[in-house]
Amino acid sequence: MTNSRSGFTVGVTFALAVIAGIVAIGLGSVTVAVPEILQTLFKSAESAVNDTIILNIRLPRVLLAMVIGANIAVSGAILQAVMGNPLADPGLTGVTSGAAVCVLAIMLAMPEYTQFIPLAAFIGGMFAATAVYALAWRRSGMSPITIILAGVAVNALCGGVVGYLSIMYSDRLPSAVQWMNGSLAAKGNATLAMVLPYSIIGWILSFFAIRKANVIRMGDQVAMNLGENVNRIRIMLSILAVFLAAVSVAAIGMIGFVGLIVPHMARFLVGSNYKFLLPMSMALGALVLLLADTGGRTLFAPMDIPAGILMAVIGGPYFLYLMRRSVL
């Protein structure tokens, strides 16, 4: 695929994500037409009702879904380069569950320290990623099957800790249930303001890391022949991937399979060059999670189904499809 065609595809996907976001703002118990949305956003018309619905409720949620989706998709794309296999994903490799354990420990056991949730998520994610590397590493490298098995082990361990915390602090559990299922319900400007600066930093660093990601995906021997320190690249990219995943977990909880599905879709559309794969993953991640969240709050109204549940329903069969194609 030519560079111009790949660039055009990325641009179209970003445009589709913006259009989907505008449409999503208008959907809900009170339908708002697109012209009214645009008038409210650009302040060309005054309406107290529309200001409340659009600016204070739906716009923050839509933007948050797009930001989190982009974070997780970019994290997954980077992890796939680092680990050299198409099944690396923040959820499957234990990063998400490791971050979730630390966040849940603060939410349930130490709620007075909620300001440290982003840092706790990062520490938990790094610990889980390190454990997966240690368990999966062989002299011949890391194969997809060893990474998945190591991820299963780490996820099981983290799941046990989550279960223990849930029993020990069952009286405080209702406040964390939506977070545990990856819900964007009741998330507003405060959550968006918390996650956006970290996300922008992560995106900027990701674009600076494009060259390193392209080098490492070609294999260790090629990277060493080019004079690169393979282990240092892996560590740097892993920290960046965990950072983006941890920010997302701290904001809305555990969202699975976005980091697995989206990079595959992006790779099919624009190829494996991270110059295009990374921005494509960002755009598609924003679009996919936005559609999941919008579908969860509109298709099953008046219930608000968490986006994490819908992504699990979609991602599970897709993972089986990859296994069927002998990716493992």
What does this structure look like?
The protein is mainly alpha-helical. The protein has a single domain (3-324), classed as ABC transporter involved in vitamin B12 uptake, BtuC (Orthogonal Bundle), CATH 1.10.3470.10. Helices cover 75% and strands 0% of the residues. It has helices at 3-26, 34-41, 48-83, 95-109, 117-136, 144-168, 177-180, 189-208, 210-217, 220-225, 230-252, 258-270, 274-298, 307-324. The model has no long low-confidence stretch (mean pLDDT 87).
Please outline the helices and strands.
Layout: H1 3-26, H2 34-41, H3 48-83, H4 95-109, H5 117-136, H6 144-168, H7 177-180, H8 189-208, H9 210-217, H10 220-225, H11 230-252, H12 258-270, H13 274-298, H14 307-324
Instruction: Please bin the fraction of helical residues.
Output: over 70%
CATH architecture: Orthogonal Bundle
Do you know the CATH topology? ABC transporter involved in vitamin B12 uptake, BtuC
- Beta-strand share of residues: under 5%
What is the level 1 CATH name?
Mainly Alpha
Structural descriptors:
single chain, mainly alpha, globular
Task: Write a compact overview of the structure shown.
75% of the residues lie in helices and 0% in strands. It has 328 residues and is mainly α.
